[in-house]
Amino acid sequence: xxxxxxxxxxxxxxxxxxxxxxxxxxxxxxxxxxxxxxxxxxxxxxxxxxxxxxxxxxxxxxxxxxxxxxxxxxxxxxxxxxxxxxxxxxxxxxxxxxxxxxxxxxxxxxxxxxxxxxxxxxxxxxxxxxxxxxxxxxxxxxxxxxxxxxxxxxxxxxxxxxxxxxxxxxxxxxxxxxxxxxxxxxxxxxxxxxxxxxxxxxxxxxxxxxxxxxxxxxxxxxxxxxxxxxxxxxxxxxxxxxxxxxxxxxxxxxxxxxxxxxxxxxxxxxxxxxxxxxxxxxxxxxxxxxxxxxxxxxxxxxxxxxxxxxxxxxxxxxxxxxxxxxxxxxxxxxxxxxxxxxxxxxxxxxxxxxxxxxxxxxxxxxxxxxxxxxxxxxxxxxxxxxxxxxxxxxxxxxxxxxxxxxxxxxxxxxxxxxxxxxxxxxxxxxxxxxxxxxxxxxxxxxxxxxxxxxxxxxxxxxxxxxxxxxxxxxxxxxxxxxxxxxxxxxxxxxxxxxxxxxxxxxxxxxxxxxxxxxxxxxxxxxxxxxxxxxxxxxxxxxxxxxxxxxxxxxxxxxxxxxxxxxxxxxxxxxxxxxxxxxxxxxxxxxxxxxxxxxxxxxxxxxxxxxxxxxxxxxxxxxxxxxxxxxxxxxxxxxxxxxxxxxxxxxxxxxxxxxxxxxxxxxxxxxxxxxxxxxxxxxxxxxxxxxxxxxxxxxxxxxxxxxxxxxxxxxxxxxxxxxxxxxxxxxxxxxxxxxxxxxxxxxxxxxxxxxxxxxxxxxxxxxxxxxxxxxxxxxxxxxxxxxxxxxxxxxxxxxxxxxxxxxxxxxxxxxxxxxxxxxxxxxxxxxxxxxxxxxxxxxxxxxxxxxxxxxxxxxxxxxxxxxxxxxxxxxxxxxxxxxxxxxxxx
Length: 889
Fold this sequence. Notes:
By secondary structure, the chain is α+β, with helices and mostly antiparallel strands. The protein is built from twelve helices and 57 strands. A four-stranded antiparallel beta sheet has the order 1-57-56-55, with no helix packed on it. It has a four-stranded antiparallel beta sheet with strand order 2-3-4-5, with no helix packed on it. A hairpin with a 7-residue loop joins β24 (about 425-430) and β25. The longest helix has 29 residues, at about 5-35. The radius of gyration is 29 Å and the shape is globular. It starts with 6 loop residues before the first helix and ends in a 5-residue tail after the last helix.
C-alpha cells in the first residue's frame, strides 16, 4: 500500500532532505578543506578526524606540511602510524622529522666520537682503568680531607639537590625483591644504582661514591637475595655511552658495592647483561669482549666466547641450558651451563646494526623469542630452546631506525603466546608475535611511557589474574602498567620517577633574580626548574646542550639542539624557537639566507654539543662555536619567514677543521675573547667586538699546552690577564693558568693526594669575590682550591662520582650540572650577613646602606651595578661594594 503525504508534509520532507543534503555537502567540503590544509594538530576535532579517517600518505603530508616521501620514512624510522603523524604536536613532529632526516652515523666509531674526544689523550688513547683510578684518587682525597673539610665556602651539608625528580633518565635494568615486591632497584647508565622501598613511589641513591656509576645490568642471586651484582659500561654504540669498570658485588642486599678484582681489565669495559642459573651457582656475563662464566661468585671467570655479546638468559627450569645474543644477527645456545656455546641457525647474518635480543617463555622454555633489528624490527621464534629460529613477524617497524640502541622482548610468565617487544614504543602480541598492537605513545609521556625501551620486568607475584603489574625501564626512567593486558595509548600508565635523580645534563644556566634555571639534557630536552624538584618542565624537546640566561631579563633563556641549532625562549623558559636560521620549508630542513643563519649549524660542522655563551657584559651578544666562531649582536630580534637574528663569522676555521669546543669573554671587557678547539689549540683576541677581530694563537707558548680537547676557558673577573684552560683526557695536567694573557703557562692541576685526579676537567669557575677560590667540575665530582689551583680538596656530600659537565653561579651559590645525577646547589657565602638594612632580604638597598654608612654613596654608579654580570643588581655587586669598605661575612 502506498503512503500518500499531505502537501504540507511533503513540503516538510523536501525541506528536511534539502537540509540533510546541505549538511552532508558542508561536511564533505569541510573534510576536504581540512585534508588539504596545513595546520598544527591541536584540537579535539583534529584528534577525531586523525584517528577515524583512513588517511593516505598524501593527505597526511598535506595536513602536516611534509613532503609525501617523508610519511613512509617516519613510519619506518619511528614506528608511527599515519594517524599518529597527523596528531603529533608540532615540536614533537620537528624532532621526528630531524631524526628521520639525519639518521644515526653509519659506523659505531662515528657514533661515539664526540664523547670519546673528551676522554682520550693526544694519541687517542683512553686508559682501561682511567675512571676506576680517578675514583680511587677521590676516595683517598676524602680520607685525607678529614671528616668535615670547609673549602671555598663549601662544607658538610652545603649541597642541595635540585632535581629533576620527575624527568628520569636512561634505565637499562630493574630488579625486584622476590620476597618483597615493594623493594626495587634501578640501574642508571650514568647515575648509578637507585633503590625504592615502596614500589617506586620514592627513590634514593644507593652508593654515591661507587667507583663507577654507569650501570647497565643488575641481577640478584636466586639462592640468596642479599647477594647482588651490577655490570657497568654501556656497550650499545650510543654516542653518550660511558665506559664501565667491570662488575660490582653487594653482599648486604644492595647497600654497599665493591668492584670485583677479576673484572678490572679492558675486557670488562662494557658489561651489557648478567644472568644467573636458577640454582644461583653459575653466573654468566655478556660483554663487548664475549661471554664469560663464573662458578665462584665472580672471584674468577673463564672466557667462553670472543664475539661481542649483548644479552644472555638461563632457562628458568634447567641450570644446564642458556641462550645468548649479540649484534650482526648473532644468537647462541648452551646445553652445559654456559661452558660451550653453539651458533643458532635461522636468523640471517646482518651488519653491526643487527642487534638481537632473546627471551625464554617461562611456562614453556622450549619456546624462545628473538627481537631482531632487521627491517625496522622482526620477531623470530624457536621451538627447540633457541637452537633454530623462524621468522614470525616483519613489517610493523616496532624498532624504528634504532633497534641497535633500544630493543627488548618480554614474555608473559603465565602465557607463552603473550609477549611485549620494545623499541621506541612498546607493542603487545597475544598470538605468539604474529600480530602486534602498539600500547604506548612516546610523544605523550609522561601520560604514556617515555621513548626508547631497555628493560621489562614483571612484579614477583605476577599471575596474570590478581597481579598483572609490569615495570618498564626506558630513556625517561621507570614506568608501571598495573594491567599489562589492557594498558594502551595514554590509559593505564604510571610514571615512577619520584626523586629518581638520574637526568644527564650537558649544560645549564640560571637567572639570579627569578631563580629559574634551564639546562640541556641527553634525550630529555632543555628543561626548566622553577624551585620545585618534582615539577621540572620542558622548554624544548629532543637532545639539549649548552644553555644561557639573560641576567637582566628573566624572560630570556637560550638553549640548543645538536650541532649548534640554537634556540631562544622569550617567555621565561616555557617555550623556545630556533634562532640559528634553521627552519622547515615544507619539504626539508633548510636555512634562511645570510646573515640570518649560522652556516656551521646548517652544515652540521659543529660539535654534537656545540659551545655557546652570552657575553657577560651585555645580554645582547651571543657567541656560538662551530668550525668558525659566530656572533650575533641582536639575538632577541624576532623571527619572520625570511629574517631573524643576524650572524657573522668572526673567526675562520683552523687548519684541519677542528671544531671550537670552548669560548670565553672577559668580564668587564667584551673585546677580550678566547676560544679553544678540539685539538687543543687556543686563541685570543683583544678586539673581539670588531667586524674582523685579530686572533693570536697562545697554546704553543712556554711550556706549551696539551694537544687535547679544550673543555673550558675561564677569565678572572678581577684580572683579564689571568686565564684558566681545562682539558679532557685521563691525564695528569688538565688545568693550566696564565697571568700574562697567554705569554706563559703554569700547570694548576696540583700533585699527589692534594692534586686533582687524572681525569677530564669539564668546567672551571672562580668565586665572584675571591679570585683564589677555584671550583672545577670533573669526570668524577667537584673539587675546590683556595690557592688558585696549587692544592685541591673534594667537598663532602656533593655530587657523586659522576661527570660534572657544568658549573655556574647564581649570585654566590654554586650550581653543578651533572651527567647522570641532575643538578646540585651549594651556597658558598652566607647571604644573610649581607642584609645590612635588616629588612630580611639581600638586595640593592643593602648597597645603599653600606655606601651611606661611609658617606660615599655618590662614589658608585647610581644603580650600584658595579660588577659583572652587568644589567642586574645581585649579591656579587653587594660583595664588591662591601669589600671596598672592608666589610665581609
